[in-house]
Amino acid sequence: MNILIRRIIHYMLLVVILLGGVYAVIRFQDAPRSHAGVGDIAPPFSTMDLEGKQVRLTDHKGKGVFINFWASWCNPCVNELPLLNEAYKIAGVDMLAINVGEKTGAVQKFVERYELEFPIVLDSALNIKQAYQVVGMPLTLLIDEDGTIIDRHEGELTEIEDILNLMERIKQE
Q: How many whole angstroms separate alpha carbon 94 and alpha carbon 61?
């Protein structure tokens, strides 16, 4: 009798697990995309830069913009940012580096330490991160002159040539 009860419990657990799997598949098939993707209109945002000046995505309407989400605690971001800085100086495209979740003082120290020259904006309240559904960093987005996301690169860019090629696409779009 004891073996029979164990078997029944095992079968019931198996049925519950299977039903949960079926539910998850059905639920996620109908779920909206988990992030702002290629072909989507970039969610608008307004935030502050390190000098306290308000910056809006719409400030870049009519020209492409290179957006990079980063944080100083993110090792791939730390590796990537100096390359982005050099590419920015060469390419001359509009760029916004969005720091995710850090305090202004910490960001300012980091920017000074690495002598970053591109515009840095702050997402201290994580509103922009949420709007773009940023899960991992670094995340790079290319937005064309019409405000459409034309590329989404998740992860570290390790070659300056790759970064320059992405930046060139902004100029051409």
A: 11
* pTM, rounded to two decimals: 0.78
| Residue 125 φ then ψ, to 5° | -90, 0
Tokens 């990537």 sit on residue: 80
- Output the CA torsion sign for 129, 133, 137, 142: negative
Q: What distance in Å separates the CA atoms of residue 65 and residue 59, rounded to the nearest whole number?
A: 10
Q: How far apart are CA 35 and CA 11, in angstroms?
A: 38
What is the distance, to the nearest Å, from the Cα of residue 154 to the centroid of all Cα atoms in its chain? 7
pLDDT of 33 > 80? The answer is no
Quote the tokens at residue 161: 């040539």
Q: pLDDT tens digits for 4-17?
A: 888 888 878 777 78
List residues bridging with 143 in a β-sheet: 65, 149
In 8-93 the beta strands, taken as DSSP E runs, fall at 46-49, 54-56, 65-70
Pairing status of strand 65-70 against strand 94-100: parallel
